[in-house]
Design brief:
By secondary structure, this protein is an alpha+beta fold. Helices cover 36% and strands 22% of the residues.
């Protein structure tokens, strides 16, 4: 599954975000993580196709059966944040 990587100084967690490129809440989530210096990977689900999309959708549904966006998967699913929940995100990464 191909992801886009964003560098940051805070690499205390393994973070993957499932997003849509057109989603305002997804953009806000990425901006917040960047502001917090979090190193993360993301997948714009609407920009992938074929087997990559099938693989990514299967992975997303393991953590969020509704497959809503954004879905933040932390430490391979030990914690999952669904939606833009600023206080919860800050609590994990601050």
């Amino acid at each position: 599954m191909k992801t886009e990587k964003v560098s940051g100084t805070n690499a205390s967690h393994d973070v993957t975000i499932f997003t849509l490129s057109t989603c305002g809440w997804c953009r806000k989530t990425k901006e917040l993580l960047k502001d917090l210096g979090v190193k993360y990977e993301y997948i714009d689900m609407d920009k992938i196709e074929g087997m990559d999309q099938i693989t990514a959708r299967t992975e997303l549904k393991k953590h969020n059966p509704r497959a809503s966006y954004p879905t933040i998967v932390i430490d391979n699913g030990k914690m999952v944040i669904i939606g833009f929940k600023e206080d919860e995100i800050r609590g994990v990464f601050s």
